[in-house]
Amino acid sequence: MAKVRMYTTAVCPYCQMAERLLRGKGVAEIDKIRVDLDPALREEMMSKTGRRTVPQIYIGDTHVGGYDDLSALDRAGRLDPLLAA
Questions:
Q1: Are 33 and 8 in contact (CB under 8 A)?
Q2: CA 80 to chain CA centroid, nearest Å
Q3: How far, CA to CA in Å, does 38 sit from each of 5, 9, 23, 44?
Q4: Which of 13, 48, 55, 66 is the most exposed place for a label (fewest CB within 10 A)?
Q5: d(CA 82, CA 13)
Q6: Residue 25 · residue 83 · CB < 8 Å
Q7: If you ran DSSP here, which 8-state letter would residue 11 be given?
Q8: Burial class of residue 18, CB neighbours in 10 A (0-12, 13-18, 19+)
Q9: Which CATH number fits the domain 4-84, given the four candidates 3.40.630.30, 3.30.428.10, 3.90.850.10, 3.40.30.10?
């Protein structure tokens, strides 16, 4: 299974929904990067993704985007193959 990395904060309902979706797909480990604890990490996230909001999700080297993007990938049947890579 591909490595999953998620930029997140402590209190973020979309982050929790993304994690629940990924866990439901069998993802056992999510590398969570807490941008609320370190402003430099938020700057890193914004530099890499061009986005300010969390979650920002990577599956392997692929930037998926936020929860809405992750959910859309799942509905389109493209999330499982990405996770299996």
A1: yes
A2: 14
A3: 17, 10, 26, 10
A4: 13
A5: 23
A6: yes
A7: S
A8: buried
A9: 3.40.30.10
Number of other CB atoms surrounding residue 12 within 10 Å: 18
Enter the tokens of residue 58: 């990577």
Residue that has been written with the tokens 């049947």 in this structure = 77
Amino acid at 80: D
AA identity, residue 3: K
Per residue in 38-79, pLDDT (tens digit) is 999 999 999 999 999 999 999 999 999 999 999 999 999 999
> For the whole model, what pTM was predicted?
0.94
Contact (Cβ atoms closer than 8 angstroms) between residue 70 and residue 25: no
